[in-house]
Structures are given as structure tokens and as C-alpha cells.
Design brief:
Chain lengths: ~220, ~90
């Protein structure tokens, strides 16, 4: 599977994602923000970082770049699209997933390991986990508090992918920290699966995100 | 005609504002007791346009496409014609 990793000025998890995708068995390649045609890729990952310095709002400026047209096209063609951290903020700004990731409740940058519950395994990324399985992955963000004004709809349509288990560190509504579109193929998560993809990092709990994408995407 | 535009962006009523809450707590450290603290972003720029109405419409479009996130923000637009300032 050819997986495109989007690079914006300020992306900084691109090489980590490349490494994790290699371990998972994909053929990753980098895509610069001004490339509009992504038709040669089978799946897209938007990595974390601080695109455009988080100016205006995290993800707001990346959301209007030419590569977004290609990502929208990929989503329309039902290719899997995963946004991690800043990538999740970008997908929410674009409107490919519902809601918004905004300033943490405690107004601090939070960088720590978290326990997370898999809320649905209907997305390719979570397809290799058991529903309600609890896994460990780290978070690292200042703007990760999830908010939506259509929470009931998300429950009804099974669009909640990940939830914090135990502590809700950033004050997200219903402790939600991962959501998907109606089809379940565009997925936005604040925790970093690539930083939990090898046991040497503490755990490889996150690797199944990429393996699932390859197997079921 | 040249116009000055000012866009005032605030959080919708009831939205948590961690920045304002932090400022309020800091003021309390200095023994100022205040309440209902809000933070508001103001973006100002100049632009060319035919008339007030078309300029307002264009700036409104900018708000919807980039400057604001409709899920959490309200915004106000103020347009001033450069020529009206004597």
C-alpha cells in the first residue's frame, strides 16, 4: 500500500510516521503541501506538528492549502485518511470530521502517556483492536480539547473512535479524543500511534493503527 | 475605493475560555476581583472595494473561509471607508 505523508511548514512528526509505516509494512512517501494530485496514493496520513506556527488556530492555515483538495478527493474515493494531532486539528478545520480541537482546559501544553479506549473498530485504523480495548499512546498538544455541538449524532452514527480512559487530561467533551467521518474512513486522533509503535518506545499498542489501515483500508 | 476592515472574533456564549480563566486567576493573585473575563481577537486590514456592501460581503466570506471557526466563534465586522476619515 502506497501511503502519502503530508508535509507542511512546521510538520514535525513526518519522519516518525514514515518509520512506523515502514514497520507496519506500507510503502510511505512524503507529499509537500502544494501538491494537489494525490491519485497515486492508496492512503493518506497527516502527521503532527505545528503547521504554520499554529497561527490563527491550530490547523486553520494548513486547511486552505492545495493538498487539501487532494485529501478531499481521496476521502471521496473512500481511501483511508488519518490525521494525527496537528493532522487531526487540520481535518476538523477542513470539516472532513465533525467538531473542533481547541485550547486545553488547563491552558497548558500536555505531553504524557494516556490510557485510551477503542470506542469503535469499524474504521480501518482501529479494525485490528477489540471494541472497548484499552491501549496506551502518548499525547502532546496545547489544543486538543475536543468540542462538538452535535454529540448525540456522533453517538448515533458511531463516529467516536477513541476516548480517554480514567483521567480526561485536556477537558474534551465526553473525554473524546478521536472521531471519524460518517463512512469511518477519515479518522482524526489527538494521541500519537507512531510514538507507540515499537516496544523500545514503551509499547507497540499504536502500530495496529497502521497495520489495520494496510489490511482493511 | 480603499477601506479599513476590522474583524472581532469571540468565543460563542458558554464556550470554555482557558486563556480568560487564567488571566482572571492572575488578576486575583494581584488581589483584583473580577468576573466574566473574556478574550477577543481583533484582525485589522485594508482592502480595495466598490462600496460598503461589497466589501462587507467579501470580509464576511473571509471570516467563514478562514478567519473564524463557525463551531466555536462569533464575529463582528466593522468597515470604514478611508475617504470618510477627514
Amino acid at each position: 500500500m502506497k501511503v502519502g505523508i503530508i508535509r507542511f511548514p512546521g510538520s514535525n512528526c513526518d519522519r516518525d510516521v514514515f518509520h512506523a509505516l515502514k514497520i507496519a509494512g506500507a510503502e510511505p512517501d512524503y507529499i509537500w503541501w502544494n501538491q494537489r494530485d494525490l491519485s497515486t496514493f492508496d492512503a493518506i496520513v497527516i502527521p503532527g506538528g505545528f503547521s504554520y506556527g499554529d497561527y490563527l488556530r491550530a490547523g486553520a492555515i494548513a486547511a486552505i492549502t492545495p493538498v487539501i483538495d487532494g485529501i478531499k478527493e481521496a476521502a471521496k474515493e473512500e481511501k483511508p485518511v488519518l490525521g494525527i494531532c496537528n493532522g487531526a486539528q487540520i481535518l476538523a478545520e477542513v470539516g472532513l470530521v465533525p467538531g473542533v480541537f481547541t485550547n486545553n482546559r488547563n491552558a497548558k501544553f500536555i505531553c504524557k502517556w494516556t490510557e485510551l479506549r477503542i470506542k469503535t473498530n469499524r474504521t480501518p485504523f482501529t479494525s485490528l483492536y477489540k471494541e472497548n480495548e484499552v491501549i496506551r499512546m502518548p499525547i502532546a498538544h496545547a489544543e486538543g480539547r475536543y468540542y462538538t455541538d452535535i454529540i448525540e449524532k456522533l453517538y448515533e452514527q458511531d463516529q467516536i473512535v477513541l476516548g480517554f480512559e480514567g483521567e480526561n487530561p485536556n477537558g474534551s467533551i465526553e473525554a473524546i479524543t478521536g472521531v471519524c467521518n460518517e463512512e469511518g474512513l477519515v479518522c482524526a486522533v489527538m494521541p500519537h500511534p507512531e510514538r507507540a509503535s515499537e516496544t523500545v518506545l514503551g509499547t507497540d499498542d499504536g502500530l495496529k493503527f497502521f497495520k489495520g489501515m494496510i489490511k482493511n483500508g | 475605493m480603499k477601506y479599513d476592515a476590522e474583524v472581532k472574533i469571540s468565543l460563542k456564549k458558554g464556550m470554555l475560555n482557558p486563556e480568560a480563566a487564567t488571566i482572571e486567576r492572575a488578576l486575583a493573585l494581584l488581589e483584583y476581583q473580577v468576573e466574566d473575563t473574556k478574550t477577543i481577537d481583533i484582525i485589522k486590514f485594508s482592502l480595495e472595494g466598490e462600496n460598503d456592501e461589497t466589501v462587507h460581503k467579501e470580509v464576511d466570506e473571509m471570516c467563514q473561509r478562514l478567519l473564524c471557526n463557525p463551531v466555536i466563534h462569533n464575529y463582528e465586522i466593522k468597515i470604514t471607508s478611508k475617504n470618510s476619515i477627514k
